[in-house]
Amino acid sequence: MTIKVVRGNPTPEELAAALAVVRARAAAAAAVPPGAPTSRDSWSDPSRIAAHRLPQPGPTAWGRTYWPG
Q1: What is the value of pTM for the model shown?
Q2: Taking the alpha carbons of 28, 31, 33, 36 in that order, is the dihedral positive or negative?
């Protein structure tokens, strides 16, 4: 893996910190077996919307489509 600084003049400490983050992310990605299911945040789960009653038709129904309650 090659990392190239294309803009700016980082200090050795800043470059080491950035490299540590990149290496940690690469190690975390390598630790997940291919084809393993990934967890989703509950707020982005489409079934969260389908679990509730659909809004009744009316002028404000569109605003309640994605924010049930």
Answers
A1: 0.45
A2: negative
